[in-house]
Task: inverse folding
């Protein structure tokens, strides 16, 4: 039996997960909570095999901020993000943290349960959108040390807008600069981050901690 901690602040979501997992018969739910302190305490107390972690938690914290603390508490605990947030920035941050799974809540419950079982058996499992990001993350050149001061304020302004999916023209309007200035800054940013496209640039920037991604309210 795999010991599972459900870290989600929605009781209906937890109930649905429990039903799906119980049908497989390989899981023991050792705890369920959506509060940060309780999640970490449950990890210390039960050393779960798997933590199913939502991004938006009850105390308005980003669940991804708990990945490192959970890993420090128990190196053997595997972590699967289970969330409504399928946007690129969240997936990029999760990729950088090397979570074992990233599943979106629009997946069928049977698919989620099977994916979690696969994760417990040592595999990684990602939704379709997350898989595309993981592919780009794997292709991103190895991260090297880069002081945040290596990027100019203008370059930082541009890269912080990339996850929003804005075009160069829209970024130019947002920053009140010319299209050519945006293209020039992107070219310089790609070179400094060792990236060849927007996806790799965002992944690399998140890995380096050049900006923080928080869940939307």
Result:
């Amino acid at each position: 039996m795999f010991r599972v901690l459900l870290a989600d602040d929605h009781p209906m979501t937890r109930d649905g997960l429990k039903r799906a997992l119980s049908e497989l018969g390989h899981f023991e739910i050792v705890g369920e909570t959506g509060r940060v302190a309780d999640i970490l305490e449950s990890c210390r107390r039960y050393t779960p095999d798997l933590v199913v972690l939502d991004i938006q938690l009850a105390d308005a914290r980003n669940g991804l901020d708990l990945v490192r603390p959970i890993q420090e508490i128990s190196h053997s605990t595997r972590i699967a993000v289970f969330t409504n947030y399928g946007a690129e920035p969240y997936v990029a941050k999760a990729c950088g943290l090397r979570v074992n799974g990233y599943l979106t809540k629009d997946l069928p419950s049977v698919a989620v349960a099977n994916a979690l079982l696969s994760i417990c058996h040592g595999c990684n499992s990602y939704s379709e959108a997350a898989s595309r990001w993981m592919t780009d993350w794997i292709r991103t050149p190895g991260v090297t040390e880069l002081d945040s001061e290596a990027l100019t304020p203008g370059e930082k302004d541009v890269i912080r807008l990339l996850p929003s999916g804005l075009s160069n023209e829209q970024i130019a309007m947002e920053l009140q600069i010319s299209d050519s200035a945006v293209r020039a800054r992107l070219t310089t940013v790609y070179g400094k981050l060792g990236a060849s496209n927007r996806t790799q640039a965002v992944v690399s920037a998140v890995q380096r901690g050049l900006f923080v991604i928080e869940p939307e309210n």
About this structure: The first strand starts at residue 2 and ends at 7. Strands lie at 2-7, 27-33, 50-53, 78-83, 101-104, 125-126. Confidence is low (pLDDT under 50) at residues 141-146.
